[in-house]
Amino acid sequence: MDNLKKKNLKKKLSIVDLAKQLNISPTTISFILNGKAQEKRISSELVERVLKQIEEVGYKPNALAQSLRTGKTMIIGLMVENIANPFFANIARLIEEKAYKNGYKIIYCSTDNDSAKTKDLLRIFQDRHVDGYIISPPEGIEKEVDGLIDNGSPVVLFDRYLHDTKADFIVVDNAGSTYEAVNHLVKNGYKNIAFITLDSLQTQMQDRLKGYEKALNEHALSHHVKEISYYQEEENIIRHIVAFLERKPELDAVLFGTNYLGVSGLKAIKKLNKRVPEDLAVISFDDHTLFELHSPDITAISQPIEEISEKLITILLGRLNKTSKAKKTQSAVLAPELIVRGSSRKIKA
């Protein structure tokens, strides 16, 4: 190893150091690194000499300095409720894939549906100068979201939206999908249908409840709703569901408001030695790989994950790259699919 390379290992090179080594201006190197050599009429020979020197000395541009020059970090902040949940994990993976193809990197985190934690994470992302945000928001961050947009950072919300904010959003037809699920159960002969959901005022959970109630009202059937607090240990969720089902022996079907409630619900049903669907038919909002492995397989309301991801990143990239001409808030309500499986089959006469 020559003396120059040894020296470079001890000291991180700056663009000024590199310019001195090549006896050219830092500005010329900057133009080359930012792909403006042809525009600035820099000779191909000089470009080749600069790139060769960069490779030899291991020069790496300072990311913060680059962002100050270009006004971009090429980083997108993705904030989801829980990255371990298959729905959010799949959304993140697809967004990351398309973002990378467009030159952007993703930094993502879980908010745990906690507004205080979300505000802290937003401050961290702002300190990192991320270019834009994709968020599944908890309640109570409306002011922060509008502040980001006012400061020039585009924000796209998904899974739920915040009333009276300036953010673009993508959601699904939550009310229509639970309405369809309940009608499917009624058509198959079920009359005492419960809805086990989260104790939440968020738009997606409220809309799922509205769809359930609308369908039961149209058929003049009784409501049986159990609301469970967010982020309890699974053991507690199972215990609450067991107690609810024991208090309601008349139930012949249950609709779960999320996939993780559905998984816990199946464990509760097993604890009670009930058969699916003979004793209790089951449908869950959000599909899950475990639902296909269960015997019988579980009917699920499946969200269009690829379409959601595509629309999210397309809207955000349009805002970031100034290709979108939309000045007003952009939004879309997508249609989930009811995947009918063995857990909700028709009752034999």
UniProtKB/TrEMBL annotation:
Single GO molecular function: DNA binding
Top-level taxon: Bacteria
Metal-binding keyword on record: no
Record-annotated HTH lacI-type domain positions: 13-70
Signal peptide bounds: none
Entry protein name: LacI family DNA-binding transcriptional regulator
Residue ranges of domain HTH cro/C1-type in the record: 4-37
Statement: the UniProt record of this protein carries the keyword Transcription regulation: yes
Pfam family, one: Peripla_BP_3
Keywords, in A-Z order: DNA-binding, Transcription, Transcription regulation
SMART domains, alphabetized: HTH_LACI (SM00354), HTH_XRE (SM00530)
